Model the fold of this input.
Amino acid sequence: MLTSGWKSVSMVDVHGKVTFTLWLCGCNLRCPFCHNWRIAEGLDCFPLDGEKLLDELESSKSLIDYFHITGGEPLMQWRELGALLAEVKILGVPVSLNTNLTIVNPLERLLKADLVDHIATDIKAPPVALYGLPEKASEGLWRLFLKGLKTVSEYGLQLELRIPVAKGFDAWPWVEEALRGIDTDFYIVLNPLVGKPLTNPRDEIWCSNHCWPSEEVEALREKLEGLGVEVYTNHLAEGPARQTGVP
Ligand code: SF4
Done:
């Protein structure tokens, strides 16, 4: 399994929780704002030393709420990930998976095997702008994402829904559609997209047009709170830490 590393104690990867966080390489999307694009493209990666990781995890387990896997898109390596999570479960550590929720059948296999306790994902909207892929592919991936939300609901897992908020787009129609498909406990974290010098986005020109939103953040918050949804906002100055590893 290819990784770019891990952090044995992190307080910025899952809202309000302490995690042991592992970054896995590869991704099926090309988000223009991605600041983990080197990991997503398999650069800066090396084979995971599973034994060493599990030793460190066992030492940290009394300090953490979750073993959190992020990337990149962890489900690109789902078979190897499943084998690792089986070992993690033997240690008795709850597992949180950060996924873009478009690789649905492998996800369902991991859920069916009871290897995941918490899911974090993004509502990337509009998908055709935020997935960084051609229109038809983006539409197909959005439908898979909706199926992924349904799958997570069927297994009753708690969901951290993040919304990467971009400048100049109305994300609401897609946010509403995503929320309609959720039937499990969830909360929302608004992540205003930040660019240079705080992060190193894949597409600097895109980011100079669409990072650093202003009124879009408050507009989304108001609409979500109007629906009675629990919402947290990461302030722009906190951007680079909080957005680490967002698939
Ligand atoms: S933001 Fe996430 S889903 Fe998008 S390219 Fe980067 S790692 Fe992949």
Observations:
- The first strand starts at residue 2 and ends at 10.
- Confidence is low (pLDDT under 50) at residues 237-247.
- The chain is about 40% helix and 20% strand.
